[in-house]
What does this fold into?
Amino acid sequence: MLEATPLEQLLEHAQAELARLGYRTSSLQIFQCEWGKLKKFAAENGIQEYSSELAENYLVFRCGRNVLNVHSDLSELEKNARRTVLALDNCYTFGIIQRSQHGRNYVCPENFKKEAQSYLDYQKTRTTPESMKNYRRHLYQFIGFLYGNGISSCAEINGANISSYCATLAGYDACTIHTRLCSLRSFLRFLYEYEYISQNMVAYVPKVKLSKDSHIPTTWTDDEVKRIIACIDRGNPVGKRDYAIILMAATLGMRIGDIRDLRLSSLDWNENRLEFQESKNGQAQVLPLSNPVGWALIEYLKNGRPQTDSPFVFVQQIPPYDHFSTHNSFWYIIGKYLKMAHIPPKKRGCMCSSSKNVSKRSPKRLAPWST
It folds into this structure.
């Protein structure tokens, strides 16, 4: 849009966008409540048209600071305010609200299906299952942007479309931008090489320099891990689950994706070990099921896990007790206990102890959880 737009008109357009994207009723209520407060703030200040300045001033009024470019350590109020204002600003700038698309639920527009499926099939032979999730998500985000801007097929992609899409990434950190632009180049290169488009559009994708040392690995000290674990209330089902998750990360050094996707069939109680395929590289992995981890799992499975047919060990504690999303890093879990332990966050995601030492010896036999 970008031309002077009455706030009332922009809000109507934004609500229509939410309906188009199929947002849940609970999410719609959050947006409507926050936009109502923004509308009231504008009226009290004699403002009738939307502008980025209005958005920033409102966030300062609502949150006590401008949180547009803040990505961590946000309160629930700040998250909701930032999310709703960013959605409205995207509607103002690009004419659409861009929503993260997860492959399982996303319906690809008919005119893009052939190219999208061909690209995903092509990538399956070249990358790991974990990386495939990112390629699929980034592809659907790009297609969703094109479709929302009136582009009906890949043949209509041009430099202006690509530049506009890249501009929507401006609010993300450098690592996220770098990853998404790499995925975009990959898709555009595929379209050109397989003659779905007549011009190589890769040159229109800007390059983002990312230092190899920009993400220095961080660890938690033994004392910090003990303080975090001590904060977990193991007397309720959620606490039993969280305790098992954090203990597996801290003592076994498992990636969060492997913990999230761990299946009941991976638990070998006879040999007291975990057998699973690593999501990052697809390699088979066997880890000893130590006594603390084993008993934590037994307690959770017997007295904390809801009754569900899910094949996964860890499930959500609210109906329908689904498996966690493939993009869930469990940050809300570890973040909650970090606050309780008064430990400042070092990174997003789960944890590893600085003195992690996984024993190769078989631990003492545990009683099967089912008995």
